[in-house]
Automatic annotation (TrEMBL):
Keywords: Bacterial flagellum biogenesis. The keyword DNA damage does not apply. One of its GO terms (biological process) is bacterial-type flagellum organization. This is FlgD/Vpr Ig-like domain-containing protein.
Length: 224
């Protein structure tokens, strides 16, 4: 009996039991506690305070496990609700006009091109630059930095007051704060949502000939 008591109370065994408590469930904990009581040294039995402390530890373990199960169920329900909400929202966008980030503007030679933009707060200066295929500046517009959203209409006229050829041009939005730091800004274009498709990752929006997510959208244009 003394050998058994010595074995169960050795530092190595205590470390093993502690590691087991960190990974095992409440039933395993009870088994370990039962074995510890069975093989305790009758000449040096476990004190009441120590026994109560271990039972309290068991009670805390059981409560934590119950809380974890409850949280897992709640998180699963919230995720399902979030996915359903996103799917319904994406479906409602079919046929609607939305704004998405862009780096290009098309000049058709007819109606003025409408180029939207978005600025983060804190901008002191902001410009819109239109570049040709060689990266040369074609036209520049000063923007109101106090407006976080806006639209510029470009009539296809260059900064030299000559009409440019039809085609795709690059558009950049540059903004700086009062310290000269870069402020996040982007050009926007309007496209119509053609379809919504679903897969294991959720809903995907097809607009302007490309696949998008809800996070890619900068805004939804009101119906006329």
């Amino acid at each position: 009996m003394s050998e058994i008591a010595s074995l169960t109370s050795s530092p190595t065994t205590e470390r093993t039991v502690n590691q087991a408590n960190a990974n095992l469930g409440k039933e395993d904990f009870l088994k370990l506690l039962t074995v510890q009581l069975r093989y305790q040294d009758p000449l040096n039995p476990m004190e009441n305070t120590e026994f109560i402390a271990q039972m309290a530890q068991f009670s805390s373990l059981e409560q934590l496990q119950n809380m974890n199960r409850s949280l897992d169920r709640n998180l699963g329900s919230e995720q399902q609700l979030h996915t359903a909400f996103q799917n319904n929202l994406a479906t409602s966008l079919v046929g609607r006009t939305v704004e998405i980030p862009t780096i290009e503007v098309d000049w058709t030679g007819e109606e003025p091109a409408q180029i939207g933009y978005r600025l983060d707060d804190g901008a002191r200066t902001a410009q819109m630059q239109i570049l040709d295929g060689r990266g040369q500046l074609v036209r520049e517009f000063e923007l109101d930095p106090s407006e976080t959203h806006g639209v510029v209409r470009w009539d296809g006229v260059s900064r030299l007051d000559s009409e440019v050829p039809e085609g795709a041009y690059r558009v950049l939005i540059l903004a700086e704060d009062h310290g000269g730091g870069r402020v996040r800004a982007e050009a926007l274009k309007q496209v119509e949502v053609e379809a919504v498709r679903y897969d294991a990752t959720g809903a995907s929006i097809w607009a302007g000939g490309q696949r998008l997510s809800l996070e890619d959208l900068s805004g939804v244009i009101a119906d006329n």
